[in-house]
């Protein structure tokens, strides 16, 4: 398949998924609060693409949720070229993706994160994943979450779930705290064996995330919580912030390649605490 066709297919999917996820969020909020949408350009002087980030704050369900889409291109900075597959041979790149981070009003509902991306250098590949970060343990929720992920992965390859779950557990870990960020999920990168099969999997990851976040929210949105529950949420958000600023690849990649700063940092919670 022609590379330009691959680019168009992937970027169009990410954009349509942004619209679909935002529509789901609006419905959960009964359309009483709207997303603030901002479009941006990577370079003000020449065409290097850009994107749109949408943020909704102070809803009945969501304290803050960001749904970002981007399609950017240009040259990797020299310091990045040796770390990106194919970039040492030619520093030019093209990348498109979607990223979602949800911080909830009700502390009994976990924070949720999802992203998928398609990157082209002299090589091209998909990456992404999703994970859930509760402030209180809920073993039934954890079991159900991983059951859905396993069923989704098994539709494509019986080895995906165990492989990508382990990758997620390793990735979303705070070494300075010696603790995981949350209850895991799946994480994958450098998927480049078969575009059609890989793209089908990436689309399924997006659709499954939509199903999961709606299921979790609808189950817990009316549950009563206490001030102690909220304090635990704030502390957990502090850990979330530490990970995203210290270790997160997407945050580093965006800042090092001229991405939109507000869009990149939308993953940070509106309020967090440290002991």
Describe this structure in words.
It is a single chain. With 275 residues, the protein is α+β, with helices and mostly antiparallel strands. The chain has a single domain, classed as oxygen-dependent coproporphyrinogen oxidase, CATH 3.40.1500.10. It has 8 helices and 9 strands. It has helices at residues 3-28, 78-81, 139-154, 160-171, 195-220, 227-246, 249-256, 261-264; strands at 36-41, 49-57, 62-75, 92-104, 111-120, 124-133, 173-174, 179-180, 185-191. Strands 1-2-3-4-5-6-9 form a 7-stranded antiparallel sheet. The chain has a two-stranded antiparallel sheet with strand order 7-8. Strand 2 and strand 3 (62-75) form a beta hairpin. Helix 1 (3-28) runs parallel beside helix 5 (195-220) and helix 3 (139-154) runs antiparallel to helix 5. The longest helix has 26 residues, at 3-28. The protein is globular. It starts with a helix and ends in an 11-residue tail after the last helix. The model has no long low-confidence stretch (mean pLDDT 95).
């Amino acid at each position: 398949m022609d590379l330009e066709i691959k680019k168009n297919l992937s970027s169009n999917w990410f954009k349509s998924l942004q619209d679909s996820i935002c529509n789901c969020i609006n419905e959960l909020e009964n359309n009483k609060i709207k997303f603030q949408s901002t479009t941006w350009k990577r370079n003000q002087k020449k065409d290097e693409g850009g994107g749109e980030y949408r943020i909704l704050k102070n809803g009945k369900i969501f304290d803050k949720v960001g749904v970002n889409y981007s399609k950017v291109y240009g040259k990797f900075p020299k310091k990045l070229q040796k770390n990106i597959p194919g970039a040492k041979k030619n520093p030019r790149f093209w990348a498109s993706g979607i990223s979602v981070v949800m911080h909830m009003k009700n502390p009994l509902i976990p924070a949720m994160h999802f992203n998928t991306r398609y990157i082209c250098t002299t090589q091209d590949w998909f990456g992404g994943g999703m994970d859930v970060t509760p402030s209180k343990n809920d073993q039934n929720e954890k079991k159900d979450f991983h059951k859905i992920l396993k069923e989704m992965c098994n539709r494509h390859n019986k080895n995906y779930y165990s492989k990508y779950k382990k990758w997620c557990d390793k990735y979303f870990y705070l070494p300075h705290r010696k603790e995981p960020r949350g209850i895991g999920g799946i994480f994958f990168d450098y998927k480049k064996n078969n575009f059609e099969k890989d793209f089908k999997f990436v689309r399924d990851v997006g659709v499954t995330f939509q199903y999961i976040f709606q299921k979790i929210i609808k189950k817990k949105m009316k549950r009563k919580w206490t001030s102690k529950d909220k304090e635990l949420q704030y502390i957990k958000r502090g850990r979330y912030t530490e990970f995203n600023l210290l270790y997160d690849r997407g945050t580093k990649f965006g800042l090092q390649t001229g991405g939109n700063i507000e869009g990149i940092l939308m993953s940070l919670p509106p309020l967090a605490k440290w002991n």
